[in-house]
């Protein structure tokens, strides 16, 4: 669809919607300087999945933690700032829309931007916890140690990151499904929709034929045919145009 026609339609959908559910992926944060995983410049290869698993954490905890810290650039995580994509969702709330953000991202930028309801289904990179006593640990503590362990003397367990690892259950799935089932408008922003089970939210959204579904992503996904409007364009440019049309 031509960008101008697409954004005009999305602006109309937003005008009519009261409840909006938004699924975001790594693509919403690339304009903040955080690389995604699967587009051409992305960080993904098959080894990544193996090394980001609970099994690998058990098998070689030292290498797991070294890889994890490097992959998510934890030293610099705090310096990233939300961009127009994140701010757009806050502005929708300011218009009086009830917006639920379901994010696959672990960078915390939706919270930083000021979104009220954010479900971080893959957790966050803000810290770690002891899998035995569940004690939480902040990023500062993790960064000090090559192999972060629980300080509880009866425990001494190797810590697990707050990020959901491969082989673990995603978080907040019930509330995410509920938000999608109740919304008038479902928007996907910056996701390849390759990660299960979160990509199934698209099919759940489509069950109700009157609900409007919008996808904004830099490249096609295997779910494109389920959406009412598909925009393959950079997010920042797209949301700025939607905002302009909304106010025309
Ligand atoms: P993905 O890497 O699989 O897909 C990102 C998609 O965003 C790609 O299809 C790409 O074309 C698109 N994209 C990139 N920049 C864009 C832009 N400026 N405008 C429009 N589209 C753009 O990401 P995913 O679907 O979220 O799955 C990756 C997994 O990796 C997630 O589960 C997430 O937990 C994790 N991850 C998170 C971050 C983060 O927190 N910022 C970064 C990398 C990976």
How would you describe this protein?
The protein has 248 residues and is of the alpha/beta class. The protein has 10 helices and 9 strands. The protein has helices at 3-16, 46-51, 54-59, 61-71, 84-94, 109-113, 139-144, 173-182, 200-206, 235-246, and strands at 19-24, 98-103, 117-120, 127-129, 136-138, 160-161, 185-189, 212-216, 229-231. The chain has a 6-stranded parallel β-sheet with strand order 3-2-1-7-8-9, sandwiched between helices. A 3-stranded antiparallel β-sheet has the order 5-4-6. α1 crosses α10 (235-246). The two termini are 21 Å apart. The model has no long low-confidence stretch (mean pLDDT 92). It binds nicotinamide-adenine-dinucleotide. Nicotinamide-adenine-dinucleotide binds next to loops. Residues 25-27, 29-31, 34, 36-39, 42, 104-107, 122, 190-192, 194-195, 217-219, 234-235 line the site of nicotinamide-adenine-dinucleotide.
